[in-house]
Specification:
This protein has 7 helices and 3 strands. It has about 140 residues and is α+β, with helices and mostly antiparallel strands. A hairpin with a 2-residue loop joins strand 1 and strand 2 (about 50-55).
């Protein structure tokens, strides 16, 4: 009987191992992509009837980004600083970029938006003069 067993084809475990390995890899990829991926938070800021949004992995930064968007788009102080900069030699040399692009051309404009105006905006939220709603996924 031992000779008969040698002549019969043996069933291989390779297909089971291959399927199991594929499943482990698939589960690992799904878990890696879904955990810690920093699903963004979205902040919706309402100031004087206008709405601005910002996104980031943290709620705090999403709120600050919504303030940055307000500052670039609708803050009267930034409008004044931006117009003065456009008329300056630095603004002319930069090619008179849009308000959104100008902050990347001039450090002082960047600081105005991201520090001065954004902090003022956060103060408006705290004082109830502006409203923010943040949702994180």
């Amino acid at each position: 009987m031992a000779a008969n067993n040698l002549l019969r084809p043996q069933k291989s475990a390779a297909p089971v191992v291959n399927v199991s390995l594929a499943l482990v890899l698939l589960i690992s990829v799904v878990l890696a992509c879904s955990s810690g991926s920093g699903q963004p938070c979205k902040a919706t800021l309402t100031v004087e009837g206008q709405t601005f949004t910002g996104e980031d992995a943290s709620a705090e930064k999403a709120t600050r980004n919504s303030c940055n968007n307000y500052c670039r788009s609708a803050d009267p102080g930034y409008e004044t600083v931006y117009q003065a900069w456009l008329d300056s030699p630095a603004g002319r040399d930069a090619g008179r970029p849009s308000k959104e692009e100008a902050i990347f051309k001039d450090k002082k404009l960047m600081e105005y938006v991201t520090v001065f105006c954004a902090n003022e905006c956060l103060g408006k939220i705290k004082d109830g003069k502006a409203k923010v709603e943040t949702k994180c996924k």
